[in-house]
Amino acid sequence: MKILVVSDTHGRHDYLKRALAFEQSVDRILHLGDLEGGEEEICQLTSCPIDMVKGNMDSLTNLHEEMLVQAEGRRILMLHGHHMCLSSGKEKLYRAAADFNADIVLFGHTHQPLLEEYHGITLMNPGSISFPRPLGKTPSYGVIELNQGKTDKFEIRYIVG
């Protein structure tokens, strides 16, 4: 199963369209918040299932602030991250993983990509596909390939050119 992971689109979808065209076949999209009203447009970009959570800029939406999804036997915790005190470390993310018995924690908010594994838990922040930080950085997104019973693949990819 191939999953496209995006965050912080802030109502702008040009680079998301490019990522979808580049990836060609995606089985699922996980959006980690700060859509700023772009939910409907994103849903029109593809026919695959899309799961979305609420970010700190999404006050007018009914999306949940966190969501646990399952795919290929993995438990994936999705959240935006603005309640996690990310500037002081990742401890709250690991505690949330334990609370939800999650194998994978996906978060956004910082607009900076991160991919790391600690004690069997994978943390991924795909960065921002629309407004990367610091300014001038390359828009980024994540790709997860889950292969039940085999090695999973996690990668941060960049929109170039």
Poorly predicted segments: none
**What's the total count of β strands?**
10
Shape: globular
The strand order across the widest sheet is 3-2-1-9-10
Following the backbone from N to C, one meets helices and strands in this order, namely EHEHEEEHEEEEE
Number of helices: 3
Distance between the termini: 27 Å
Query: Tell me about the biggest sheet?
Result: 5 strands, mixed
From the helix content, strand content and strand pairing, which structural class follows?
A: alpha/beta
The average pLDDT score comes to 94
Radius of gyration, in Å, reads: 14 Å
Cofactor: a divalent metal cation
InterPro entries: Calcineurin-like_PHP_lpxH (IPR024654), Metallo-depent_PP-like (IPR029052), MPP_YfcE (IPR041802), Phosphodiesterase_MJ0936/Vps29 (IPR000979)
EC number: 3.1.4.-
Pfam families: Metallophos_2 (PF12850)
